[in-house]
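Protocol step 4 of 6.
Sequence for NADPH-dependent 7-cyano-7-deazaguanine reductase (Methylobacillus flagellatus) entered exactly as in the expression construct, tag removed. Do not edit the line below.
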Amino acid sequence: MSSQPSKALETFDNPTPGRDFHIHMEIPEFTCLCPKTGQPDFAVLYLDYIPDQKCVELKSLKLYIWSFRDEGCFHEAVTNQILDDLVVATDPKFMRLTAKFYVRGGIFTNVVAEHRKPGWQPQPRVELAEFESQSNIRG
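Step 5 output, structure tokens:
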């Protein structure tokens, strides 16, 4: 696998496709460029999903996220593009991408985009776990 930015998302087979389970990822180093000014934008991405048959492979996700660093993107557009690409790659039962952009012009922007597979219903009383934000060091 390459160590260069790439739009290719790789997957692997869900090890337990008969069970709904929640995958939570925090991606603290997302960058892209403001399409108006060319200035860098920074965000923390939170990816939550319930896989069906496929899970996203982490290194390919890292390289995919890295591929946006030199692209001009509006916050709303890039959040939805990333979600759409992940949905195409993994076809999850449920996926939510939350993008928390750092302040620009005195305004913090948060964008939340969701996908539900047609016909999928969560089990009764299932709530996705809340995770505290993690630093790069786990204790």
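Step 6, annotate. The first helix runs from residue 58 to 66.
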